Amino acid sequence: MEKKVIMTELVVAGSGGTGLAAAYAAAKAGLKVIVLEKLQQIGGNTRISSGFFAINSREQKAAGLQLSKATAVQRLLNYNHFLANGPLIHKIVNSAAEALETLEQMGMKIKLNPTAATTQFAHREDDYKGGSYHMYQDKAQGYQKIQQTLERAGVEFKFGITMQELLSSEGQITGISAVNEAGERFEVHAQAVVVATGGFGGDKKRVATVMQTPYLRTIGVPNMGEGLDAMVKAGGKNIDATALIHAAQLAKSKITRKTSKQHLAGFVKNPLTQLLLTPLFWVNMNGERFTNEDVVYDTVEWANAGWSVGGQYYFVVDTATLNDFTEHGGKLEVSQAGPGADTTTGNFVELAEAAVKDGTAYKGNTLAELAQNAHFETAQFYEAVKKYNDSVQLRVDQQFGKSKKSLVYAIKKAPFYAFTTQVAHLGTIGGVRVDEHLRVLDAEMRPIPGLYTGGANAGGYYEGHSYPAYEGLASGFAWTSGRIAGLSAAKYVKNKQTLPSQPAKNVYK
């Protein structure tokens, strides 16, 4: 049977923000571009994101914000303990505003979220964290316009196609082998490839192995790591691929790719989320307190704290606390970080009893009974409660430095309840080592000719299991790195066409 072959100049695998930006940049530069997408629509995991991180943008200038790109670079490097790729971070930060303008030209409407309006209350006094969030407006319509814009620019989309492997000849990447939904295999031959398949967030076993815990919740499209694995097989080095942990969820709460009216991924309509999203008393699976619960006001720090104890923890309340939420709405500010809270009223004792019945919470008429039911170590849990009650009484947390205003609710009036909480992730980030032009590098730090990547397959922008708490950072990186990859690929292809009998020059220096 004759092998089916499609010819083009650039093939892009994946149509999330990275792939769309790459395809548009390359097409505008004059290349013939084909985009392969495993789903039946564009957008990928970028569809669940709410905004774009950029510094010194047109929107910020209009709002009177004077932010320094150099300061942003330094802050990102500091957060990453200088383990990240400095030139890459510099390139992304200095290119993001232009990439944002390109995204608007493609059809997405953007509105800058003021720092004072941030849903992450820990960012209220920080314009770099809270004032750099350029939020997508009318996303569904925006993605329709983006597809139309790319098609008018000559980009050809092929849906229901999953990338399999990279093709190569004489040390250069020459295309992609792929399979359609009917199981038919074919090849796309090209002069360059951009892998924008979005990581491996759909591979639960792989995520559990990388993150060393089976308890993480997931949301997003079923990216299984095809592109990342293909690049590693072709000589790329996976340096930092990890889950994009993002806030936490009530156990067994239904998470979908749809968002709430506040555009927050993973919104759950249950008033118990008011307890989830306030700095109450948290313990790990052994019943030991483990953090300053004020981290609930920062999505990244909240997720990091939860992951540090295995990805699952419990918030513990007494009946007096539940009654106060029922009668007065509680004395603590309810965070809107991550999934956001359902702020409707309700009978919180009845809600707690329903959670116990559903197996997502535990109840005890004594602390010892609660410890037994929740499988805590009784002596350790009892000591943790005693120390915390002392902190509430003194309004001083000598253990983790929790703020005075958050030390409100002691654990005294029975019955007592412990609610199971699990860290969520929005797919994966990190991946193969790249340079600032988004060329994939081999073990000797040399570019693999013709191979580019970005977004959730590109390593070096983050460090370890965490990512800097700057709103819209991952989504901004996807679009910006994709645009750079597309421009870089276009330069490479045009140089090859100019000098067909010679190795491609380094046109980036």
From TrEMBL:
Xref: PANTHER family: FAD-DEPENDENT OXIDOREDUCTASE 2 FAD BINDING DOMAIN-CONTAINING PROTEIN (PTHR43400:SF7), FUMARATE REDUCTASE (PTHR43400)
Residues of the FAD-dependent oxidoreductase 2 FAD-binding domain: 10-464
Family matches, as InterPro entries: FAD-dep_OxRdtase_2_FAD-bd, FAD-oxidoreductase_2, FAD/NAD-bd_sf, Succ_DH/fumarate_Rdtase_cat_sf
Keywords annotated in UniProt: FAD, Flavoprotein, Oxidoreductase
One Pfam entry name: FAD_binding_2
Cofactor requirements of the protein: FAD
Signal sequence, start to end: none
Protein's recorded name: Fumarate reductase succinate dehydrogenase flavoprotein
Matching SUPFAM superfamilies: FAD/NAD(P)-binding domain, Succinate dehydrogenase/fumarate reductase flavoprotein, catalytic domain
Species of origin: Liquorilactobacillus satsumensis DSM 16230 = JCM 12392
Gene Ontology molecular-function annotations: steroid dehydrogenase activity, acting on the CH-CH group of donors
Coiled-coil region: none
